[in-house]
Amino acid sequence: MQKLFNCVVYLHDPILLACAVLILLVGSIVTMRLFSRARHTKNDIQRLWLILAGMIGGGTIWSTHFVAMLAYKSDLILGYDLTLTITSLIIVVCSTMLGFAIASLKTNSLLIELGGAVLGFGVSMMHYTGMAAMKIQGGVQWDAATVVASVLLGAFIGIACVSITARKFTKYYNLWGALVFVVAVALMHFTSMSGLTLVPANMSIEVEKLISNTALGSGIIVLMGCLYLTTFITSMIDMKNESATSEHYKYLALHDPLTGIPNRHGCEKYLKDFILAPLPENRGVAIVGIDLDRFKSINDVHGHAAGDHLLKTISSHVSQILQPGEMIGRFGGDEFVALKSNIGGKDDASEFAERILKAIRQPVMWNDADISTRASLGFSMFPWDSENPIQLLEQADLAMYYAKSNGKDCVVGYNKAMDSENRERTTLATALASAIENEELSVHYQLQNDAQTRKITGVEALLRWHNPARGNITPDVFIPIAEETGFINELGTWVLREACTQASQWRMPIKVAVNVAAKQLADPFFADTVKTVLEETGLEPSRLELEVTESGIIGDASQALKVIRKLKEIGVQIAMDDYGTGYSTLATLHNFPFDKIKIDREFIKDIDQNEHSAAILKSTMILGNSLKIPVLAEGVETEAHLAALSTEGCQLVQGFLFGKPMPNNMFEELLTQQISAGLWDDYIEAEADTNVVPLKAMA
Length: 699
Fold this sequence. Notes:
3 domains, eight-stranded mixed β-barrel, 58% helix, TIM Barrel, Alpha-Beta Plaits, single chain
């Protein structure tokens, strides 16, 4: 230890020694950072970082050694052999690269310590090769024990510095790793030098072939300058690339790739920024929820490319009308959110939403086809409606739902009454989902009669729901809920199976009509479901009549036509319900194979008093006769209604005049009464003439 102290204090120039320490300290910090960076990357990028770490680390060790040798006070040193000097540099650079590479092979294994040992032995090899390059006027004697100690000490501390950095033992692992690296190189060097003895002697050495101290010092300065400059430039490039990559990923994380406008996360960020930004007193932020109408049908009819074009075009149209403090983002699918800062109240929010709606209404063309659409918009306002960003978005979405329920293509502002209604709808939706399992549902039948004889010609199956907690819940309440939640398909299948099961047991072959929802008609497997139900229940296909509305067809006309044709192949009858309420009725009648037309009750309620209603009935009867399609009038409630319909030649009627919708047992009793009254004698006699006993007719 005394020899080591004397070597450092008395045998080295303090200024040059300080330079060596500075080079070692800076180089160590840079080296360990590069090594740490290499361990966090893979493949080719990792190899490049390892090469750079090896060059900086090896150059640092080599430069430290030779600057320390320049600081070594001895008149016997004549210079340094060029070949061995360069060889020592190559050895330390390669061994440093190799050590770091081995330590980077596995995230957590003994290879880390092996790599550190390789680094430590490389330092020793460089040191003694560099010492061999030193030419003196005399000889060199080494203390064997000191040499062995220096090699082992270098290897041990090399293991320590690599392990600390790789295993991250502390929060400041890079700094501690660098400090241990400094200690490893310094202790190894000075321990070795303390075991060195120079023996003067007269020797013939060609001094001109050696590297002088001045030349060596200049070379070290140039080498380290180039290495540090390379590292600095590389780090700057890496930082720029990392920053650009980070910005790119940040952009992707906050923007919709299709339209280029902010996505859900981007909208939420904008909303938080708008809310947190200082606003004048009595000023706030408008949050507008937007849902496009008929988007699915456009996708289905024209393809997803057309749908994407529509989304991009609408985003562009709306973006063009935005003013400072306004933005629009896409939440997903055909849902958008728009924000406006610094509003004064409901009028400003409504004006903003109406402006957006006007932009959405602009024409959009795709392959010469008009794919323009409309939208339903709902808005909420900060801070009047809420100060919570998530709640504001939910309120805007709720208002948007009300806009869709009110006929679409309109703007609705949020109000607190919507919350209680929404909670009630949610509660009903939950209860409805278990209504089948809990046996809360039943089917009632409304009579369809012959206008002259009043004989039953068929019935319409109507779903009824009795909830133990809420009593009877009307269809106009729970059917829309079933459609929104997607439960309508399961509900419709249950009604179909129940109606067919009961109809198959009736004493007379009366037709049963079942309503079909738009989502059922959009199901490509719906015809298969109907066929399965008919086979399971044993009902003749000709006795089943499925009622479809024009609105249920127009959403996806091509798909609806495919399903209806399959149903016709099975033998099922198809009726057009709510005739006269659509906007393309004639085209629908022309394109679809209907077996019956049902005139909506709105045209019947005042038919005996309103000339327009009578004219519509007359034109419908003429149309039905021309197309050879029977016409049935709904909503017949009085004898005056029946007389007016009979005058116009309408033979089929349905309404409260003949009774309200009734459960199956009441209907069977009524049917028995008609049989007893002789209304079915013609049918019974015809069946008897063919020696066929009608089902239960003779019971």
